[in-house]
Design goal:
Blueprint lengths: L12 E4 L8 H20 L5 H12 L6 H11 L8 H11 L10 H10 L3 E6 L3 H11 L7 E4 H4 L6 H11 L6 E5 L2 H10 L3 E5 L14 E2 L11
Helix pairs in contact: 1-2, 2-3, 3-4
């Protein structure tokens, strides 16, 4: 972590990205693959395990960038099925089950507890489909603790557009100058939040900062955020 020269003025609100920031996608994917083998075990056969399924996903997934429909097509053809399963069935399984296995990074609860104890408003700004992202928020147990949850599909605007950050701030009743944003995506999260007027932190738990030096406010893990509070 790059420590600040002195603690920043405490914010009135902290907004978070979801995937790669609060939700540990690697842990969730491992859980999902165990579910996958349990649900499709008879069609796959006893020689196929969760590690093999996870490898097939990771070989093409590109960190979640591959469209889920395309991923389903790959799984339908790449795995050694004893009884064929359609890509539509696999897509439906992903949509219904993946969000429910969302797994928080180990320090998420501690950070949320500490911010709540300081009466700092909490919010989430996420790109993605509403049903999937809401299921992750519910699985993480964060829904009752967030004063604002803004998901791109619901509002028709996505990060890095400053408008989506302002929607969350409006719901919290906080000005951008009094808010922080924490995310793992250099463009969507850091540059987007800064363009919206928030103080942005990049957390190195998801996407890497390629091609240039990382931003000044870097967090090795989410818990490092607390060192920046006055």
């Amino acid at each position: 972590m790059t420590a600040p020269a002195k603690p920043l003025k405490a914010p009135l609100a902290v907004l978070f990205d979801l995937d790669g920031t609060l939700a540990d996608r690697a842990a969730a994917l491992a859980r999902y693959c165990r579910l996958f083998v349990g649900d499709f075990g008879e069609a796959l056969g006893p020689e196929v395990d969760a590690v093999q399924v996870e490898g097939a996903i990771l070989a093409v997934d590109d960190g979640g960038a591959l469209p889920r429909r395309d991923l389903a097509v790959v799984l339908a053809s790449a795995l050694p099925w004893r009884a064929p399963v359609s890509s539509e069935t696999l897509l439906r399984h992903w949509n219904e089950r993946f969000g429910a296995v969302a797994t928080p990074f180990p320090d998420v609860c501690g950070v949320i507890d500490a911010l709540e104890a300081r009466a700092i408003g909490l919010g989430l700004v996420s790109n993605g489909g509403a049903a999937m992202q809401w299921s992750k928020v519910q699985a993480l147990g964060l829904a009752p603790r967030l004063g604002a949850v803004v998901i791109s599909e619901e509002v028709g605007v996505a990060k890095p557009d400053p408008a989506i950050f302002h929607l969350a701030l409006d719901r919290l009743g906080v000005a951008a100058a009094d808010a922080w944003f924490v995310g793992d995506n250099p463009d969507a999260d850091v540059r987007g939040a800064e363009a919206a007027g928030l103080t942005a932190f990049w957390v190195a738990t998801g996407m890497s900062w390629d091609g240039e030096a990382p931003p000044r406010r870097c967090l090795t893990r989410l818990g490092d955020l607390m060192a920046h509070l006055a």
